[in-house]
Amino acid sequence: MSGGNGKSYAMETELVLANHKDSFNSSIVPLYQSATFKQPSLDDMGEYDYTRSGNPTRTVLQTHLSKIMKAEYSFVVTSGMTALDVICKLLDAGDEVIAGDDLYGGTDRLLTISQYDTTNTKLIKSKITKETKMIFLESPTNPLIKVVDLQKITDYAHEINPDCLVVFDNTMMSPVLLTPLDLGVDIHYESATKYLNGHHDLMAGVIATNSKKIADDIYFAINATGSGLAPFDSWLLSRGLKTLSIRILQQQQNAIKIAEFLSKLGLKVRYPGLKEHPQYELHKSYTKGPGAVLSFETGSIEISEKIVSNCDLFGITVSFGCINSLISMPCRMSHASIDPAKRLERGFPEDLIRLSIGIENADDLISDLTDALKIAGAIKEVDGNLINLLK
Ligand SMILES: *Cc1c(COP(=O)(O)O)cnc(C)c1O
């Protein structure tokens, strides 16, 4: 079968090549919707016995993901939060852990640990000690779109404590734009609910590492708790994954146009693809692109609510990474679980609107936003020019 010769190809090619051993030579990976597997004999367990411990459909997906994530080992679990929960099981009670202060809302809810502005490399360095066992990083953060100096923090943490595990949430970039294990990160995880699958028809999480010890511990936790991804979801994710590159590149191309449109209107836009982003150069230095999530402010919660409510193509939806464009107000939706006082302290604008750009036609998306901005009273058209009314 093509791609079975052990040769490595470019990302776009690897994404569509998933090797499997099917006795009928099926073109795509077969779905083994079976909880159990018969043993060849009483003395021989065979390759698979029980789906909680292993399933051929899941194995094919994991092998495929290892190639995509440039990892020795990878695992798929029932959601991104499950991935984080499994990783937390590598810790012992009382271990010193550091995390960023603009992490995903659900991560924030799960972790009650020291959180700092991880874009402040100097500050983070001052917090890392020989006792630090784990560091959680995410970049660009969501929805404030802050960029972390991943290489510097990873190198410094390993210098201070070679056993410190640097854990990176790569959900916003996906392996098409960043493979963080290449930068020396110990564990790369992602919510596959977002870009990896891309169609919002399943929930999944992936964990990847180059360390056999970490991989063994992670497998132990997954097998012991039964958090491995179900066969059907593994099969669906295998299908979604094949179009990852083409989706991301189209979404990113659209996002760049939309960010430029909003920025030209004089709105405060947060997007690492705009030169005005304070960490434009840093982000560019270690990723292959700015991605397709951006946020902007209007200065008024009421106007923001009206914009969100009056879009037609942008669905009011939590989450991101779908082929369809999505719009949300994080303070009212995904980040509502963060205490309002904590949001204020972190400089979280309550009027912030987040856009996750899909694969639609960019002009249609811009026209949809223009209509919503007009209805909300944020802009008006004078002699064919759009005038910002918010200033
Ligand atoms: C969505 C998300 C998660 C959680 O993943 P689920 O699949 O929803 O459990 C974790 N991190 C980031 C950055 C996310 O966007």
UniProtKB/TrEMBL annotation:
This entry carries the following GO cellular component terms, namely:
peroxisome
SUPFAM superfamilies according to UniProt: PLP-dependent transferases
Copy the pathway line from the protein's UniProt record: Amino-acid biosynthesis; L-methionine biosynthesis via de novo pathway; L-homocysteine from L-cystathionine: step 1/1
User: Any idea which residues bear N6-(pyridoxal phosphate)lysine here?
Assistant: K194
Q: A single GO molecular function, which one?
A: pyridoxal phosphate binding
Q: Please name the Pfam families in this protein's record.
A: Cys_Met_Meta_PP
Name the EC number(s): 4.4.1.13
**A GO BP annotation:** transsulfuration
Q: Which cofactor does it need?
A: pyridoxal 5'-phosphate
This enzyme catalyses: L,L-cystathionine + H2O = L-homocysteine + pyruvate + NH4(+); an S-substituted L-cysteine + H2O = a thiol + pyruvate + NH4(+)
Cross-referenced PROSITE patterns: CYS_MET_METAB_PP
Residue ranges crossing the lipid bilayer per the database entry: none
Q: Which UniProt keywords apply?
A: Amino-acid biosynthesis, Lyase, Methionine biosynthesis, Pyridoxal phosphate
**Which family does the entry's similarity section mention?**
Belongs to the trans-sulfuration enzymes family.
NCBIfam families with a match to the protein in the record: cysta_beta_ly_E (TIGR01329)
Protein name in UniProt? Cystathionine beta-lyase
